[in-house]
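G., the chain you wanted modeled:
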Amino acid sequence: MEDGRQRGDSADLLLPLWRALVVFRVTTWLFACFGVWSIWDGIKRPSGAVLQLAIMGVWTVIASIGYSRHWGRRNTRLAFADLIVTVGCMYATLLAQPLQDIRGGASVLTNVWAAGPVIALAISRGRDGGLLGAATISLALLSLRGVDNAAKILSNVQLLLVAGLVVGYAATTMRRANVRLREAIAAESATAERLRLGRSIHDGVLQVLAQVQRRGNAIGGEAVELAGLAAEQEVALRALMASRPSTGGGGRLDVCTLLLPLATTRVDIVLPAEPVLLPANIATELVAAVKEALSNVAKHAGASARSWVVVEDLGDEVLLSVRDDGRGTTPDRFDQARSDGHLGVSQSIRGRITDLGGDVTVRTAPGEGTEWELKVSKT
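Predicted structure as tokens:
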């Protein structure tokens, strides 16, 4: 389990931001210590300042360890705890300086250290988390300084807001890139494994199936059925070897991958080399229309009819052709079938594509088979 987390962390593009936050936390605590030392003579209660720095130091160690571990980065609990403790440390300045002195211009001893949870929330929750942290720290600072000194802390508030926005935007962008990176790594690994298995299958299983198919047809009799089964399994294995990841991110599917399982000894699937990504609803409806067209071939084209499914990527559109070499018919037979209440073609094919805003063209003639052209937009 720990090894898996380490491998996941190594591919996490947000990891440098978390490491930078740890450095920021430690460095700004040292700055706070230097700030207390530089105004030591002006502090009314030095013991309170030492106690405050000690609390800040302990929490810096705890937060730094948490942000350096997987458990501290996987959710926002530590970041919110950091925000609460930081606000408490800001009010702990009252242990060293009276409120009247703080509103009169004395320093809030947390100094830049108070920006830590703003960055932590921005990394873990994005822009909204960064703004929430900046607003909380700003309100705490305003309550200490007083409304009359609001103009004096305006620059600090602006810096907190900018930090929350910029880091939050960067974290969100990197998180999206991280998702794409993981998908690419998974796809690359799957492709490499498929190629490795493909070589083994091609050198062994496919050759055996091809031999069984040839010998069965040559022997005849009951062996022909065995040859047919071997041919079907060969097609299924070739389709499996040619398969690729079906998802392309953003809710889009590769229609080519969805069509591959339809290949049989009588159905050839011809695909482009590159994936053809469509919105999930369009891809599934298009494949359903193809299945209905192939079902019609099986029912009406004749027992020996073969079919070809061809996918063409036209840029903004996708053209999918389903052609067979069966009996064919006359175009008016489709209209007659709809009039007779046979709605398979009109609803399952034309209706699906029309609902997607696409076009359907059918060409057929007696003895020349039937060809369907289904054209849909890729958006």
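The radius of gyration is 34 Å.

Shout if anything looks off.
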